[in-house]
């Protein structure tokens, strides 16, 4: 009987062991090592969480144009002083008459034009007509030359060495003595090749003109506003 009991007990033990193995298999416990979660040391204070360092923002490098050569500042274009900008509104000029008006006219180069056909001398400063007068000129046997002449001499009290006649406010143009000068300007008078203007006008012109200023003498060539003064003598 004892042997039988031992055998039954052994079977029971084996049955219980089998049930334990089956239960463990059913639960399926994971035996792998758990992930290690770091903790701060017990003695240290909890640190405030730090944000991850911000990624550096890319710098926008806009392409810049290559530097060009430095340009010199330019002023506003100035009007050409050798182009007619104004003609005095005076109408026909009688012998002995003249006009002179420099009000508001800036400084500039002086050019004198003479039209023998119209018997008029005009004075331009910087392209603006500032004076005009009726003239006398040379007779057929002593004609006034055509062309462009620089003023080579100024003499306010000149007297002709050939004729002994006073030539006030003389502006000499040629080596043989052709000049612009003051005289009585009246119908029927003529000169020995010079250009005679009223003496009062000659005084004004003498003060305005300088040595080297140009006197352009033509016959029947007129100038209009906007037309070049220099070069006008090319079509005498």
Automatic annotation (TrEMBL):
Signal peptide annotation: 1-25
Record bears the keyword Cell wall biogenesis/degradation: yes
Gene3D superfamilies (UniProt xref): L,D-transpeptidase catalytic domain-like
Top-level taxon of origin: Bacteria
Keywords: Cell shape, Cell wall biogenesis/degradation, Peptidoglycan synthesis, Signal, Transferase
Keyword set includes Cell wall biogenesis/degradation: yes
Boundaries of every L,D-TPase catalytic domain copy: 110-218
Active site: 181, 194
Pathway as given in its UniProt record: Cell wall biogenesis; peptidoglycan biosynthesis
One Pfam family cited in the UniProt record for this chain: YkuD
PANTHER family on file: L,D-TRANSPEPTIDASE, L,D-TRANSPEPTIDASE YCIB-RELATED
UniProt record similarity statement: Belongs to the YkuD family.
Name of this chain's protein: L,D-TPase catalytic domain-containing protein
Species classification: Bacteria, Pseudomonadati, Pseudomonadota, Alphaproteobacteria, Sphingomonadales
